[in-house]
Write a structure and sequence with these properties.
There is one protein chain. The protein is mainly β. The protein is built from two helices and 18 strands. The chain has two domains: 106 residues, Immunoglobulins (Immunoglobulin-like); 100 residues, Immunoglobulins (Immunoglobulin-like, Sandwich). Strands 3, 4, 6, 7 and 8 form a five-stranded antiparallel β-sheet that branches. Strands 13, 14, 16, 17 and 18 form a five-stranded antiparallel β-sheet that branches. The chain has a three-stranded antiparallel β-sheet with strand order 1-2-5, with no helix packed on it.
């Protein structure tokens, strides 16, 4: 039988990390190295950097999952946060495992825009919609990410005749409707788009392809 100290060490959570997309923020960790650790329960706390007291996250207190949603606990997006996790098994508690410091505004990943494509015989009209945050206005609708950042849309066209991997940047800016003209009828074109944050020099992933034949 493992001594208590050994058990404490062997069930201690590993790799405690924040993951965040459009301010939807979760804490992830891996179980300790002991085989028994898969039966452990986990306890999560968080605080703003500089505060002395840790807050319990009630919904993640004594859970078997390795993920905890901290979206609303980290809603002051300019503040730096820490979180920590400990494990318990057979009445033995591990020490706390600490995350790195996490500042939502700086570190959240921004998702791609929604793209809708309408075609005529020689042009494509691209309609763009920025991703939304989980936070709501008083009227109840979700606040778009453009409220928090100076964002640009980047629109790329793929001419399937030439090369499916070759994306050509045809627009960068803030317009939500972009018209691409002088295209060849009968040719299959695909559109993908990204969000770009100039201030942080971050780009989102590409949107899913929207393809059309003129």
């Amino acid at each position: 039988v493992l001594e208590n100290q050994d058990l404490q060490d062997s069930i201690k959570p590993q790799k405690v990390e924040f993951h965040s997309l459009n301010f939807n923020t979760t804490l992830h960790w891996q179980p300790g190295w002991a085989r028994e650790a898969r039966d452990a329960l986990y306890f999560v706390q968080y605080k703003v950097y500089g505060q002395s007291t840790w807050q319990n996250k009630d919904e993640c207190w004594g859970i078997s999952s390795h993920v905890c949603d901290l979206t609303y606990e980290t809603s002051d997006i300019q503040e730096p946060y820490y979180s920590r996790v400990r494990a318990a098994l057979a009445g033995v508690y591990s020490n706390w495992s600490l995350s790195c410091r996490f500042t939502p505004w700086r570190e959240t990943m921004i998702g791609p825009p929604m793209v809708t494509v309408v075609h005529s015989n020689k042009s494509i009209t691209v309609k763009l919609q920025a991703p939304r945050s989980p936070y709501r206005r008083k009227r109840g609708n979700k606040i778009p990410m453009t409220n928090y950042y100076d964002l640009l849309y980047q629109v790329f066209i793929i001419n399937n005749l030439l090369d499916e991997q070759h994306r050509v940047l045809v627009y960068e800016g803030k317009d939500k409707v972009v018209k691409i003209e002088n295209l060849r009828p009968g040719v299959s074109y695909c559109i993908v788009a990204k969000m770009y944050v100039p201030m942080l020099d971050h780009s989102s992933a590409y949107s899913s392809r929207q393809c059309t034949v003129l």
